[in-house]
Every structure is written in structure tokens, then in C-alpha cells.
User: What shape does this take?
Amino acid sequence: MIEMHVAGIAVDAVNQNPIVILRDSSERRALPIWVGKAEANAILQALDDQKPLRPMTHDLLLNSWETWGITLERVVIHALLDNTFYAVLTTLNGEKKQEIDCRPSDAIAIALRAHVPIWTVEEVIAEASIPMNQDADEEEREQFRKFVENVSPKDFIRSRPFTDYPTEADG
Assistant: This one.
């Protein structure tokens, strides 16, 4: 899994829908997630550390959990199926860990309020992310090409014999 951070909210130029942009810590990959306007507003409020006069739904949930001794450990965006992202909230209640299905937009809004990490499964990153630093990606590919050009089969042979396999002397 890769830890992601909210880089901000963008707006789709075609249909004017908000997009949450998640970015990895190396700033090499960005993951765009289309969200609704209300969810984008909730995320922006959390990013700006705005405290509403009355609790919003995400605040209410976290306040309830606090009252009941439940803490949020992390958020995980774990799947992308038919252009829909899936996430879970991982909570702790004493020793009991539980995962709760959640829309990614709500999970992100809650994670920002609770100051917990947002993780994304590598397969989701591979499928849906966009490169942010193509020069670094190209440099990494070039280093790998050089490695492959200079590697030989003997580089993978162990220098001492395996001892777990029977020999002719063992009968």
C-alpha cells in the first residue's frame, strides 16, 4: 500500500465536477477521484481546518466514535471497479479492529478531520494514477535498462551449494 496525501481539489473542465487529487509522498503519482460538490466542500473545509458552528455529518461521526471510545486508525482506498473507487475506514475499539465500507470522498473528509493516513492499494495506483514527474520515471526506466543489460545468469547463482536437497551420498 502507498500512503497518499490530499494535494487539493480540481474541477473537471468538461462537466465542472470536482476532483480530489491524491498524491504520493514522492510526488511521482497523482490519483484523481471525481466527487460530488458537497463532498468536495467537506474536504476543502477539512483542508482549511475550518470549524463549522454546528457539526457536519463527518464531525458528528467522529464525535460519536470519540464518545464510544472508538478511534480511526486509517483509511484505505482498496479497489477500482467499473470506474468506481472503494474505500474502508479502519477503526479500533480497544483491541477490536473493524473495517467499515465507505465512499472514498467521505473517507478522505473523515481522515483529514481525524488526522489519520490515507492509504491506497498499489493495484489501484497502477490502474488509475497519472504520472507527475515524467523525468524521474524515465530516469528510473533508464537505470533499470542499464541493470538488465549488465546482468548475467551467473549473478543469480548461489555461491555455496544448497544444503536442503538430498545428495547422492544420502542415498
